[in-house]
Known about the structure:
By secondary structure, the chain is α/β, with parallel strands linked by helices. The protein is built from 15 helices and 12 strands. It has helices at residues 7-22, 49-60, 92-105, 122-125, 135-146, 152-160, 169-172, 207-216, 225-235, 261-274, 290-307, 335-346, 378-384, 389-394, 398-405; strands at 40-45, 66-71, 81-84, 113-118, 178-184, 253-259, 278-281, 315-321, 353-359, 371-375, 408-409, 420-426. The strands form 2 sheets. A 6-stranded parallel beta sheet has the order 3-2-1-4-5-6. A 6-stranded mixed beta sheet has the order 7-8-12-9-10-11, with helices on both faces. Helix 11 (290-307) links the parallel strand 7 (278-281) and strand 8. Helix 6 (152-160) packs across helix 8 (207-216), helix 8 (207-216) crosses helix 9 and helix 11 packs across helix 12. It is globular.
Amino acid sequence: MLNLMNKESNQNDLLSSIKDLVIKPGKGVPVAKTSLQGDIWILGAGKASVSMAESVIEDLGIPIKDGLIISPSHDYLEPIQVFKGSHPLPTEDTVAASYELLQLVQTIPAGDTVIFCLSGGASSLLTIPPFGIEIDELSFVYELLLESGAAIQEINIVRKHLCELKGGQLAQELHHVNLITLIISDVPGNDFGTIGSAPTLPDSSTYQDALDVLMKYDLWRKVPESVRNRIHMGLEGEIPETPKPGDREHPNHTVRLINSADAFAQHLKDHLSKQGFNVWIDLEAYNDEINSVVKHICSNVISVLSNNEPVHKPAALVFFGESSIKITQRGKGGRNQHLALACAIALEGQHDVTMISLGTDGIDGNTEAAGAIITSYTTLQARKKKLNPEEFLQKFDSYHFHKHMDTLIKTGPTGNNLMDLQVLIIQ
């Protein structure tokens, strides 16, 4: 059991144990060997795709013909080629890697089996712009969407209609093979049509939906003319829609979810319970504007402190999800660092509260940090140092606040991607 009387030791032990749980997805990928036909090829894209492919190779224990993974980092995985793409904004490297994957697909003999490893991050890492749209224009649209406050489902509706591979279009190139898609989910509700912009799954959204998203967030006149032309062509039927459910679907396709935030949260609950905490998990992944998420988290903390609800102290509260944030100033930070700072301000002076907020992929926003760890005394200590927490928050500069306070969490890329995670310890 953790030493509940020693806050500093408690924080360090908690951080270390959660980091260990986050890094690398679990072994044992559910691929039945009886479902395999011909030679085996492994393809994939996403932040967790290399770790997923490693697990597939280890689990199957049979030779792999060839393969290609697109990852945000340089990795080596025999006998599979690993190409580096860019995230969160696609670049020429991303496009080059995506063409390499497409060319390999076109060489795979009919009747062979392709195992496609899909995780969050594939929306950027697997990208071929449509004719007439330059990659720098597409990258600009991605940046506008990410800073608009749009939900991930909305962002990916637009992305799917501005790419030659997303929204089931890659599956069209794989109709001649036996296709197995393995998924690690990083979106609320484990919506397969949203994860990684669903390159191997049919797309229920339309060009009209993409236009609606851009109009809703006042982006239509901000995106390049080439993008507006593309969407107009889709609306007029001059270019085909993405493949829809029941229409042009892959004839021999198996889809398996192998890990998700809710499954990980249950594993974390077992871990924390063994250390003496009364654990409560918010089983509904949040999918809301970040200030609403902060309010929701902090209200539950206050309820525990005031009424021992939903659990008695010593308590551990677990939250996970995908918040949206509309950025109005160019500071440095990410959703988790911003959320941690906002919670630190809201919980200032409350009795013995420790919070970890991190991206399970190990990268938060435009920083090298995964997130931050704060207590209900963090902002009080900052004020003693003549730092103004509210000013850092207003400038969207949470990174530099946490750097001043030595509260950043740095894991490096974890090889996993299961949404954002918050754990609060209340003693």
